[in-house]
Every structure is written in C-alpha cells, then in structure tokens.
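Troubleshooting log. The previous structure file for this entry was overwritten by mistake, so regenerating from the original sequence record. Sequence copied from the archived sheet and checked twice against the printout by T.R.
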Amino acid sequence: QLDLWNVIEADDVRGAEDMFAQAFAGGLNDPPSRDHVRWLYEVFGTSAPEASTFALRWVETFPDSPFSHTALAWIYYQTGFDIRGERFLRETYPDAYILFHELHHKAWTHAERAYELEPNLRPASDAILRLAKSTGNQMRAADVLDKVMTQDPNMGTLFRGLDMTTQNWGSLQFLADPM
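Regenerated output below.
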C-alpha cells in the first residue's frame, strides 16, 4: 500500500491504473493472490482528502476503468459513514443522514459501473454488496452475489453477502436462505 500512497501523492493516475490492472491480472492467473487487489483498495476506504481528490481525477482521466470507478465508490462509501456516524438513526443529525444517503447513492452508481465494466473485480462486487442496504438495492446485490459465488466462490464475497441479512439497516432476512 505504500507504493500506492506514493502514486497518489505523485498524482500519477496512469501509475494507479497500471498498478491495479497488474494486481487484477495477477489474481486471474494465480487464484490464491486474487485478494491482493482487495487489499490495495483499502487505501480508498478512507476519507483522506488526497485519496478522494485522486480518485475523482482518476475517473475523469479513465472513465472506462473499472479500477477508477471502484476506488471512487469506496471513497464515497467511507465518507458517507464518516459523516453519518454509526449511532442509531434517531441520534443522527438529519443533514448528516441526507448527505450519507447522497454519497452512498453516488458510490452505488460507481460500483455498478465498475461491475458492468469488469464483473470479476472482487472489490467492485464487494462495494455493491456493502452498499445494498443503505441504498435499498438488496435484490440487485443478491443477484450480484449469486453470480460471483457461482463463478468465483470465495469467503470475502460470502461474508459481505451475509452482511445484507443482518437485523439492521434495512436487511432482507429471506436473502440468507439461499446462502
């Protein structure tokens, strides 16, 4: 991740695109290393301004890149939670909840675009699964979960899919039955 932070600090979107493409391709050729690309995306699970600015520029420069859209989806996801906080809804400032909702819908749009561009990119489908409850898209996420687990079964995806069935945040308990 240190190399990725160096790329971000240098504002090298081409370098990021190449780094993620290489990590993704390596995972396709070496199944045990498929989660390496998940690990790289942890850098975008932050609300660090430099990561946010970088992800926006990356999408502008590479609008058809599943990697750039996934990065921005994770930025919006995390920033939404940073603003909203993790308290009960009744204890959340209304404007914070509105902004959280807006950011998660932006994140959903980018996660869907990334998944459309590359359905085998685990962090793209991970973002869809994580955003399902906050955006009301559980049924679409269940479809993505089914496709991923059929084509590339893995514990990380299953874990994120099970999160959609927990008793909070608008879960749909019946989704757990097929799992």
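Residues 85 and 92 are 7 Å apart (CA to CA). Archived copy saved in two places this time.
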